[in-house]
Specification:
Radius of gyration: 34 Å
Order of helices and strands: HHH
Structural class: mainly alpha
Helix content: over 70%
Number of strands: 0
Length: 102
C-alpha cells in the first residue's frame, strides 16, 4: 500500500513537472513571438526611413545635375568654408549663392 502511494506521488510529480515545462515553453514562445513582432516592426520602420532617404538622395542628384547643366557652381561645405576665409565683397555674394544650392 505504501509502495502504491509512493508510485502515485512519483507519477503525479512527473506529470506536474511535464505540465510546468509545457507552460514554460508556451511562455517562452509567447515572449519570442512578441520579440519577433517588435523586430519586424523595427525592420519595417527602418525600411521606410531608407526609402525616404533614397528619395531625398535621388532628388538631390537631380538638383545637382540641373545646376551642372545651367553652369552653376556647386560647392561642398568644405570648399565654401575655405572661400569664406579669404573673401572680399563680390566673393561673399558668390558664397551665399553657393550655400543656397547646398
Amino acid at each position: 500500500d505504501l509502495l502504491n502511494h509512493i508510485t502515485k506521488l512519483g507519477t503525479g510529480k512527473n506529470n506536474l513537472h511535464k505540465e510546468m515545462e509545457r507552460t514554460n515553453k508556451k511562455t517562452f514562445d509567447m515572449d519570442n513571438a512578441d520579440e519577433k513582432q517588435k523586430l519586424i516592426q523595427e525592420r519595417e520602420k527602418l525600411k521606410g526611413i531608407l526609402e525616404i532617404q533614397n528619395e531625398r538622395i535621388a532628388l538631390l542628384k537631380k538638383e545637382i545635375e540641373l545646376f551642372k547643366r545651367k553652369g552653376g557652381h556647386i560647392y561642398t561645405t568644405i570648399t565654401a568654408n575655405r572661400r569664406v576665409a579669404g573673401m572680399g565683397g563680390g566673393e561673399m555674394q558668390q558664397f551665399r549663392t553657393a550655400i543656397q544650392f547646398i
